[in-house]
Amino acid sequence: MPEKFNNKTNGITQRRFLLHGNPLLANWVTDHIGPEWITDLSQISKLKIYADDEKAQQEFMNIKYQNKVRLAKYILEHNGVEVDPRSIFDVQVKRLHEYKRQLLNILHVIYLYDQIKMHPEMDFYPRTFIFGAKASAGYHTAKKIIKLINSVADVVNNDASINGKIKVVFIENYRVSNAEMIFAAADVSEQISTASKEASGTGNMKFMLNGAPTLGTMDGANVEIVEEVGAENAFIFGLSSDEVINYENNGGYDPNVIYNTDWEIRNVLMQLINGTFSRDTELFRDLYDSLLTTKNTDRADRYFILADFRSYAEAQKRVEEAYRDEKRWAKMALLNTACSGKFSSDRTIQEYVDDIWHLDKVIVKNK
User: Fold this and answer.
1) What's the pLDDT tens digit per position in 41-74?
2) How far is Cα 244 from Cα 266, in angstroms, rounded to an integer?
3) Which of 239, 233, 271, 242 is nearest to 255 (CA)?
4) Which band of pLDDT confidence, cut at 50, 70 and 90, is reported for residue 36?
5) pTM summary value
6) What 8-state DSSP symbol labels residue 299?
C-alpha cells in the first residue's frame, strides 16, 4: 500500500503554546485580528499588516519584555541566578543530543567569555543564554554536555569582572509547564542541529509562534520556517545538508586542521581540559577528544561542530546587530508570529485525514 507512505510536516497546537502559554500575546492577537486564529492558525497571517506599524511594534515588544520579566523571576527562584530582562534572551531548549549541538552553543559562550576577558572595552550587548534539556538515562556524552553547561555557568555567572554581560542558565526539569514561559520570553530561537540530521522539530515552531526569530541551520522544519517568514527574518548559517552528506560519504573533513590554524577555537577547546571549568582536568576530556580524535567507527567531530563554528559566530554577530535596531527587530519578531500559520497540528491532522485516512468530517452539534 505505497499510497499510505508520504511526508507530512508536523505541527504544534496554538491553543497550548500561545493561547494558554502566552496570554498577554494571545489577547493582543485577538484584539487585532479576532479570535478565529484559535481554531484556524492560518488566520494569524492577518497580523502582517501591522509589521511596520510603530505602535503595534511597541506593544508587541512590551509584551515580550513582560514575559521576560516573568521568566527572570522563575530563574531567580529556581536557579538563584539574577538575569536582566533587557538582555537578549538566547534560548536552546530541546532533547539533549549531540546532533542538536548544544555543545556548539556552549563552546560559543566560552568564546564570547574569552573575548570579553581579553577586550573588556569591547562593545557587547548583554546576553542571557538559556538552556533546557533532558538526556536519556544511559547517554553518557549528553549528560557530560549538561555538566559542562552548568560548569561554564558557575564560572561565568560569578565573574564580577565581566559586569553581567553574559549569564548562563540551565533550567532544570524542562517540561511543558516551564516551556510555556520560556517560549513566550525568548528573543532568539536556537535551532542549530547538523544539517540533514533533524527530521522536523517542533520547538522551532513554538518559538516562531511566540515571536522569536530563528538562529539555525537549513535543517528540519527550519527550511519551511524560512520559506514562510523570509530569509531576512531569520539567521541562517553552516554547512548545507548536501555538504554534510558529501563529507560523510566521501571524507575530506579534518577538524584538526581548524584546531591547528584557528587559535581562538583552539583556546576554547583547551579550556575543556586545562582546569578552567573544573578542577578535574579529565572531566571533559571525552568531549575534547570527540571533537579531535577518531575512535572505532566514529569520525572526529562527527556532527561538524568545528566546521560550523565560525559561521555560527558570525550569525550571532548578525543577531546582535539586528537586535540593536529596535524597529527592525520588532518587525522581525512580529512577522515570525504572523507567518506561523502553517505550523499548526490542526493542519497536519487534516492532511492525514485527507491524504491517508480518507475520513469524512463529523460535525458535533451542541444540544
Assistant:
1) 999 999 999 999 999 999 999 999 999 999 999 9
2) 22
3) 239
4) very high
5) 0.97
6) P
